[in-house]
Amino acid sequence: MKHWRRPLIVLAATLLVGAVRLPLEAALTAELRGAGLLAAPLAVGTREKLGQTSATVALGGLRTLVATFLNLRAYTFFTEARWDDVADTFDTIVELAPQTIYYWETGASHQAYNASAYYLNDSDLPPLRRDAAWRAAVLKGRAFLERGIRNNPGNPKLNAYLGYLLIDHNKSRAFRDHDATFLAAAQAYQTAADAPDSLPFLRRFQLYSMARVAGHQAEALDLARQLYQNQGNRTPTLQCVYFALEMGAYPMLFDPESLAIALFGSAEKAYATLSNYWLRANDRLPVHGVASAIRALEAQLEIGADKSVFLQHPVQNAEDE
Amino acid sequence: MSQTPLSPTRSASGSHAGRISVIASHTFTQLVRMKVFYFLAVFAVITIGSNFFDLPQHAGPEAAGTNILNSIKSWSVGTMTLFSVVFAIVATALLLPKDVEDRTLYTILAKPVPRLDYLAGKLLGVILLVFVSLALMDGLMTAVLQIRSSMILSAQMELAHSRGWSAPEIASMRNDIVSQGPNISLQAAVFVVFLRASIMASLALLISTFSTSTLFTSIISFMIYFIGHFQADARGVFLEAGAGWMTRAIALLVALVLPDFHLFNEFDAVIQGQAFPPMLLGQITGIGLFYAVFYVIASWFIFAEKEF
């Protein structure tokens, strides 16, 4: 018994000291988690997916190392077009390294772009199921990206990437409610643009997204006027969107041709830019007054009917005017 | 014979600090002679090799830069963690049994060397070894990261200029790459790896004072190392209502007895680009020192009465 007396005293001291440090360590853990320096404990499901060895390594504080190896494994799945395995692997990767933006972007891109395109073009599925699989993959990519944003609130890259996905006209068929989708894109771009040192194009893309939402065009016009003040923002798309928003808000106030020449600098430039804009019908950008302006500019510049832009994309309804 | 002011017992080499430093440097030399630094060759191969491997990339050329930097960091810091913990445990577990086997322990304790000085010297020798190893690995990682990020930066700048990117876009891309390269937060994270290894060394020292073999000390230390990462989980189970009393009692015991190694896992976030605030680093360092000092005092308390 004497032999164990001192170890037992040490054990008692350890327990006593443990009781003192327990609340302190709990508070510090909370502080470190709040600062984003410590990750939350791994979910049981993730531990199971990792397997015994990797889980041990990850629990031993080497999560990013395991994530790096899983990323390599995901690449193999990607080359073999095993999309479910790619999705599963990225689910595990982002559990291990939730702050690595690259993993969120890549996981979303595999679903929304690579898997969806595969289902549509290369799979052996019958046409109806192809379309359903394509849509499911696009929505899965979006959901993954939104989960990434919830894990990294305000991250400009992820928000910009979400905005890019939501305004991609090749994907718009997957999102049934266009207004809600464009509004979500505008909000994502706004968050990205509000971040410090954000790139100027993000605010312009916020405008392009908002301009497409019914009921938000007055708000978009205010933003367009504000952006137009800065010479660096006067890209062809911004000039066209600004033109369409002004014409939409004040159709009786402006003459389309005069406003176009005033905004673009010359009739030739106005015609070239508005014609290109008109051909981007799939983008669903506002086109108020664009057709009228083009028609008037064609007359002024004596462009023959055989060369008219309307031959490539005719006026379909009164709203286009 | 009366002592003079210059007698050996009062000189610097006779002080606590002097004795501890002599034992520490002897321990360091002893461990270096065991050719432990050979592992650095393995680390060099991993780190330098990772700079030349053209690993598969999911993303396009615009994003091909930063992910490889993350990979280099996670491999390097992962390897540093493993090596430092293995070193700390195995080297410390070897200390006492080897001194007993070589009978050097009897020679030392027969002299007027307090047992605390002996233990502190031995531990400092191991910690010095871990520090030198980590410093060498860190230097190599930083050099490789610096070279690789410069390569990526120049390639991306060329791409950006060829595509006519605007000045703010180029600046943003540059910031992205630079933030993933070597920085002060990464050095802080490596320091935390060192702290964790030092705690493991002092814990292994405590176990070795009552253990009967090197193998026992090593196995128990590694078990504590892994269970220590669950400490935050155990504390959560204890603090949250809902679990049975038996589960909560076990959770409480784990939380009270074992060190919380989860607190030393910041490098995962730092690798992902998170900054390490100095205030938090200070708090972590304080906890690390507390554990190390507590385990050394506990080791001395047991070792003081041990008979050989």
Your description of this structure?
Chain A has 321 residues and is an all-alpha fold. Chain A has a domain at 235-321. In chain A, 70% of the residues lie in helices and 0% in strands. Chain A contains 14 helices and no strands. Chain A has helices spanning 2-34, 44-59, 63-79, 83-96, 101-121, 127-151, 156-167, 178-194, 200-210, 217-228, 236-249, 256-264, 267-279, 290-300. The radius of gyration of chain A is 28 Å and the shape is elongated. Chain B has 308 residues and is an all-alpha fold. Chain B has one domain. Helices cover 76% and strands 0% of the residues of chain B. Chain B contains twelve helices and no strands. Chain B has helices at residues 16-33, 39-52, 66-102, 104-110, 115-162, 167-180, 184-210, 214-228, 231-239, 245-257, 267-271, 278-303. The model of chain B is unreliable at 1-12 (pLDDT under 50).
List keywords for this structure.
heterodimer, A: 321 residues, mainly alpha, 0% strand, disordered C terminus, B: 308 residues, 12 helices, 76% helix
Q: For the residues shown, what is the average pLDDT of chain B? A: 84
Computed Rg of chain B = 24 Å
Low-confidence stretches of chain B: 1-12
Radius of gyration of chain A: 28 Å
What is the total number of structural domains of chain B?
1
Overall number of strands of chain B: 0
The major beta sheet of chain B can be summarized as: none
End-to-end gap of chain A = 98 Å
Largest interface between protein chains, with number of residues from each side:
A-B, 52 and 67 residues
Q: Tell me the total number of β-strands of chain A.
A: 0
Main sheet summary of chain A: none
Order of helices and strands of chain B: HHHHHHHHHHHH
**Whole-Å distance between the termini of chain B?**
31 Å
Shape of chain B: globular
Helical residue percent band of chain A: over 70%
For the residues shown, what is the average pLDDT of chain A? 87
* Assembly level: heterodimer
